[in-house]
Amino acid sequence: MNPFKVSAVLFSLFLGARGLRAQEALPDLQVVPWNGHKAAISLTFDDGDPSHLDVVVPELNQRRMHGTFFLIANKIDRKDDWRKILEWGHEIGNHTLDHLHPATLTPDQEEAQVEGAKNVLQKEFGIRIYSFAYPFTEVTPGLRKWVEKDHLLARGGYGATYDLKPDAEPDWGNIPSHTTLSSLPFTTYQSWIDDDLKDGGWLVWMIHGLEGTPWGWEPISKKNFERILDAIQSKDIWTGTFLEVGSYFRAQKVFEKSQVRSSATAKTWTWQVPDLFPPDVVLKLRVDPTQKNDGKNFEIRQGRQTIRKDANGFYPIDFGKGAVTVGLMPKR
Ligand SMILES: [Zn+2]
Questions:
Q1: Phi-psi region of 33 (alpha: psi -120 to 50; beta: other; left: phi over 0)
Q2: CA-CA distance, 269 to 256, in Å (whole number)?
Q3: How far is ligand 1, taken at its centre, from the CA of residue 63, in Å?
């Protein structure tokens, strides 16, 4: 055998060994954006307008959709009706005590308007409040300080972009939103939905009055509202509350910054769960689709629990556990 042939044989042996190792390598895990849907939308409703109880909630319930209702703590009529919407899966968020212009507040008032309102809402409804919306979408440093101290997420007004894409680094204390107006035709709303789908993003809607409201700002017609809901529902869009989508997204960003430790038989991701995080956030993971693996020789675990694939081939994990492991299957 000539020296050239010997080295060729050795080289192919080397490639073979490499190939084998690559097959056995443990795969990487990634978060599936938006709970497995193409895009996400959160519908948020401000100021505790009576039309939300009379028009919005029945329309959402009929479609099994959930919304977020930002209440002004010192101005809540029909408390029993608001209490009921929680049972149906909707969210109540903090919209301050009195809806004053943030720039006019003293430091004491800033604290009272944010913290005081949160306490009132938590006591009144027996729930934890995670979400906040700035009155008049005015984000002042003084208000923001209290908001960030005690809320997981806050909604602001127009951002630089309509929606947040999965690779965005969101400002959790000022999530952008888009507002409905009486003068806008349905085609405008349709384009928001189309753009969100095209981006695969998360679009937060800020909605005030509905047709028939006694005092709501910029009411929109019931017909347009129904068309909006139907247009969203006809697409593969996750319609979750501000908290549902926001906490999933925030969990994704935390997971992506995990510490990863590898050994020959296991790869473990660990992360710190942020303060004030809801306890029940399920994050859907998948194996990096660019990595070849037949899926037979590894399993995904949290502690002693093996995580089974769901119907879509995703691994639903409990984000609150702070760790997930891909390990070689134990030899039986
Ligand atoms: Zn408001």
A1: beta
A2: 9
A3: 26
CA of 50 to the centre of ligand 1 (A): 14
Residue 189 counted as domain residue: yes
Query: Which residue(s) pair with 29 in the sheet?
Result: 287
Measured in Å, residue 69 CA sits from the centre of ligand 1 at: 10
Cα(124) to ligand 1 centroid in Å equals 20
**Sign of the alpha-carbon dihedral angle for 240, 244, 248, 249:** positive
| pLDDT tens per residue, range 55-68 | 999 999 999 999 99
Question: How far does the centroid of ligand 1 lie from the alpha carbon of residue 125, in Å?
Answer: 20
Q: Are 285 and 30 spatial neighbours (Cβ–Cβ below 8 Å)?
A: yes
In this structure, is residue 196 part of a structural domain? yes
Q: Is residue 142 part of a domain?
A: yes
Type of residue numbered 41:
I
Task: Give the torsion sign (CA, 186, 191, 197, 199).
Answer: negative
Identify the CA nearest to 285 among candidates 263, 260, 318, 258.
Answer: 318
41 neighbors 201 (Cβ within 8 angstroms): no
> Residue 263 C-alpha to ligand 1 middle, in angstroms?
53
Query: Would 91 be classed as within a structural domain?
Result: yes
Q: Tell me the CA–centroid distance for residue 136 and ligand 1, in Å.
A: 6
Closest by CA position to 257, among listed 245, 270, 248, 242: 270
Q: Give distance in angstroms: CA of 47 to centre of ligand 1.
A: 5
pTM given for the model:
0.90
CATH assignment at residue 212: 3.20.20.370
CA of 275 from ligand 1 middle (Å) equals 26
Q: Ligand 1 being an ion, which residues bring their Cβ within 5 A of it?
A: 46-47
Tally the domains of the chain: 1
- Give the span between the Cα atoms of 257 and 245, in whole angstroms: 19
Q: What are phi and psi of 213, to 5 degrees?
A: -70, 140
Residue 88 structural domain: 38-247
SS3 assignment, position 31: strand
Q: Model confidence over 9-48: pLDDT tens digits?
A: 444 444 444 444 444 578 899 999 999 999 999 999 999 9
